[in-house]
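Fill in residues.
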């Protein structure tokens, strides 16, 4: 039974890592989009919005980096610690990571939606 629980915790941790990798990739694409808009800047009034989202995206990188580091640490703990006491500790750590990732995911979705909406509206107004 211990093995199946350990494998489930490992599966969840690796899933979280992949999801954070996906968010990091999306963040990179959003930063690239800022550069594209800046190159074809239709008006100086959009410059403030570009600067705002550049700041927001840079601020989002730190928690992504921290969570990714925590998850890699968790994966290593899961792979090396099979005792009952360590399994209980791994479960607790994973539960905390799960809650934090849900919060980060919600923040990321909100920022991404606002990013897309903001530029779509402004660019359509400029057309």
């Amino acid at each position: 039974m211990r093995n199946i629980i350990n494998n489930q915790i490992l599966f969840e941790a690796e899933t979280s890592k992949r999801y954070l990798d996906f968010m990091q990739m999306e963040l990179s694409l959003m930063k690239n989009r800022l550069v594209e808009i800046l190159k074809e800047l239709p008006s100086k009034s959009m410059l403030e919005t570009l600067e705002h989202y550049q700041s927001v995206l840079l601020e989002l990188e730190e928690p992504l980096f921290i969570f990714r580091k925590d998850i890699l640490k968790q994966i290593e703990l899961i792979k090396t610690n099979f005792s009952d006491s360590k399994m209980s500790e791994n479960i607790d750590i994973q539960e905390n990571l799960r809650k934090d990732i849900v919060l980060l995911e919600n923040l990321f979705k909100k920022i991404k939606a606002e990013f897309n909406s903001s530029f779509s509206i402004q660019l359509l107004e400029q057309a």
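Helices lie at 2-39, 46-80, 84-126.
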